[in-house]
Design goal:
- The chain is mainly α.
- The protein has two domains: 84 residues; 64 residues, Winged helix-like DNA-binding domain superfamily/Winged helix DNA-binding domain (Arc Repressor Mutant, subunit A).
- It is built from ten helices and no strands.
- The chain is elongated and about 50 Å long.
- The termini are far apart.
Length: 168
Amino acid sequence: MIADRIDPAAVPPHHRSNASVFIADAAVTLRRALVARHGLERGCEAAAEAVAWAWEHLDDLETMANPIGYLYRVAQSSLRRGYRIDRLRVDLLPDGVIHDAHHVDHDLFDALRRLTPDQRVAVVMVHMYGFTYRDVAGLVGTSEAAVTNYVHRGMTRLRTLLDRKDLS
């Protein structure tokens, strides 16, 4: 994995403290959004790719108005390069975790899988992690109105699915 090859100690000292804080925060946000969109395995891999890119391109990131949004697009590009047809299923949690955990609402995870990727990211980032619509819009590179639409339609669809238990 690329992230394993990056040594933060190799970053010049004047960049290291601010960069470490930014990249650590960005990594959490990226991983959350990418897992919501692409599933656990692919989302984590893409987030690691973006973090590795961030360490290699600190000077470029410092000049950007929306560096985390750019890193999200770096991760998306990484996923497109490695896209395979057998990875269409979105696994939000590994199968063993979902079946063995009593505190996990299986119906909710099944319903989340049925949303469009844009709806799933918007709903998860806003309602699970407390991001504002503006923050999500900046992260995924869309308008605040689009995020509002994704959240509204996603929540409507979730309510319908969970009320009917029509998850098969």
